[in-house]
Write a structure and sequence with these properties.
Layout lengths: L3 H34 L2 E2 L8 E2 L3 H5 L4 H32 L6 H13 L2 H12 L5 H8 L14 H25 L4 H9 L4 H12 L1 H17 L2 H6 L11 H11 L3 H26 L7
Antiparallel strand pairs: 1-2
Helix pairs in contact: 1-13, 3-7, 3-10, 4-7, 7-10, 10-13, 12-13
GO biological process, one term: transmembrane transport
Subcellular location: Cell membrane
Pfam family, one: BPD_transp_1
């Protein structure tokens, strides 16, 4: 007769089995197949794929579009991650301050999150359209000359960054708001009795207590920054001259537009490796600064 502890372990693994099966079938197996396929060259006309070793990975150093997409993605991440996290924290502070109409404020902040990404891109396309867009209407009324925001190499990527920040900040705000509501009000009362200013209280007490949430949000923001592709289909399609092309969009083009799935698999593995290293670095650096309660 098995011991009760053994039976509990068996029951626990049986309960985990369906979820583990789905994870293995739809995450790990495709990842392994992609890794294997990155060493293969697709056969033409139904011919079998041939093994080419590291040829795809060596070509990465010669691919100018890949280098451009990588630099764009790093710039995109450098813009969206701090802006969306900082804006989300600020919005959470505002809706948690007990202001009049805070329910409406929460709704306004959260609405962009529930909108479909294609709808968001079309909304912002109305802002950026040359001559007829809202930005151009305002600039024209002020006497400024027109700007093709999405057709200019110097402004296309900043426009995509603005759309991503507007979309993500409200989502991250929910996590910060939940974390703020878990902080005991007695900490604020003690800070007031000690004569601490509100700014000092937020800087030395509240923000350090929000570090677990910040770590979680940071990892998610990094993943979002390297998997953003929906907006590009509507806004820029990676143009002009690949000025707004990001890694995942380039992977899509290589794999499904040019049908070079072997090279697309190699690009996918590079993206996965980069995300893995970034996550490990974030946990390694910020884990020491996190104060768990």
């Amino acid at each position: 007769m098995p011991r009760p502890a053994t039976m509990r372990n068996i029951h626990a693994w049986l309960l985990l089995l369906p979820a583990m099966a789905f994870i293995v079938a739809f995450t790990h197996v495709p990842a392994v197949n992609t890794f294997i396929h990155s060493f293969m060259l697709d056969g033409k006309g139904g011919a079998p794929a041939t093994f080419v070793g590291l040829e795809h990975y060596m070509y990465l150093f010669e691919d100018e579009v890949f280098r451009k997409a990588l630099v764009n993605n790093l710039l995109f991440a450098s813009g969206t991650i701090p802006l969306s996290i900082g804006l989300a924290m600020l919005m959470a502070f505002m809706v948690n301050a007990g202001l009049a109409g805070q329910s409406v404020l929460r709704l306004c902040y959260f609405v962009p999150t529930v909108l479909p990404m294609i709808a968001v891109a079309n909304i912002w396309l109305f802002f950026f359209t040359p001559e007829y867009g809202l930005l151009e209407q305002v600039r024209g009324a002020l006497g400024f000359s027109g700007v093709n925001w999405l057709g200019n190499e110097s402004t296309a990527l900043p426009c995509v960054i603005a759309v991503a920040v507007w979309k993500d900040a409200g989502f991250f705000m929910i996590f910060y708001l939940a974390a703020l509501q878990q902080i005991s009000p007695s900490l604020g009362e003690a800070a007031m009795l000690e004569g601490a200013s509100r700014l000092y209280f937020y800087r030395r007490v509240v923000i350090p207590l929000l570090m677990p949430t910040t770590l979680f949000v940071l990892v998610n923001a990094t993943i979002n920054a390297f998997r953003m592709v929906d907006h590009l289909f509507v806004l820029t399609q990676g143009g002009p001259n690949n000025a707004s092309s990001l890694l995942l969009y380039y992977i899509y083009e290589v794999s499904f537009k040019y049908w070079d799935t072997g090279y697309g698999a190699a690009l996918t593995m590079v993206l996965l490796a980069f995300l893995g290293l970034a996550s490990i670095g974030q946990f390694g650096f910020f884990e020491r600064k996190v104060h768990y309660r």
